């Protein structure tokens, strides 16, 4: 089975849904942010502080391309779609999924977050504008799932169905 790439804005639930999906499908799970942190031996905030966003995006692309293109669930950072090549990679090599979540919910989840450098000192309006700017890129995904009213388990179950029907349509 081709790898499954989970994309979506910060706070959309990619990590928790990814783990639940990995369990349901019995697939290995990878997280590009965690791999970057391991490689750099720095957390994301420190990485941005020391090397800046451009270097983060360079490493993010390298990590993405180093991951297996079969039998894996790959959780990506919210800005992975900023690199056009990453969208092509995910769409050509696997199944790209966009986990949509209402901004109201996302903003609540991000309210006290100190781990995501791109939203520190940003107003709700600025964060919403960033999401709107990125939305057309996320929408390039093969499958979109609105997770706003779903629990993690429900979202994973729905994805299992969507993934199965996508794969059956591939043959
Ligand atoms: C980013 C999202 C983060 C992380 C980094 C940049 C972004 O991942 O990759 O802080 O540009 O949206 P999450 O979406 O897992 O928070």
UniProtKB/TrEMBL annotation:
Record carries keyword Metal-binding: yes
Q: Which Gene3D superfamilies does its entry note? A: P-loop containing nucleotide triphosphate hydrolases
Principal cellular location given in the protein's record = cytoplasm
Location comes to: Cytoplasm
Positions bound to substrate: 33, 57, 78, 134
Sorted alphabetically, which Pfam families does this protein's record hold? SKI
Coiled-coil ranges per UniProt:
none
User: Which residues does the annotation say bind Mg(2+)?
Assistant: 15
Enzyme group, top EC level? transferase
Which annotated residues bind ATP?
A: 11-16, 116
List the catalysed reactions. Answer: shikimate + ATP = 3-phosphoshikimate + ADP + H(+)
Keyword list (alphabetical) reads: Amino-acid biosynthesis, Aromatic amino acid biosynthesis, ATP-binding, Cytoplasm, Kinase, Magnesium, Metal-binding, Nucleotide-binding, Transferase
Query: What's the cofactor?
Result: Mg(2+)
Which GO-annotated molecular functions does the record name? shikimate kinase activity
**UniProt pathway:** Metabolic intermediate biosynthesis; chorismate biosynthesis; chorismate from D-erythrose 4-phosphate and phosphoenolpyruvate: step 5/7
List the InterPro entries. P-loop_NTPase (IPR027417), Shikimate/glucono_kinase (IPR031322), Shikimate_kinase/TSH1 (IPR000623)
Assembly and oligomerization: Monomer.
Task: Show the HAMAP family listed in the entry.
Answer: Shikimate_kinase
The entry's family comment says: Belongs to the shikimate kinase family.
Name of the protein this chain belongs to: Shikimate kinase
Its gene name is aroK
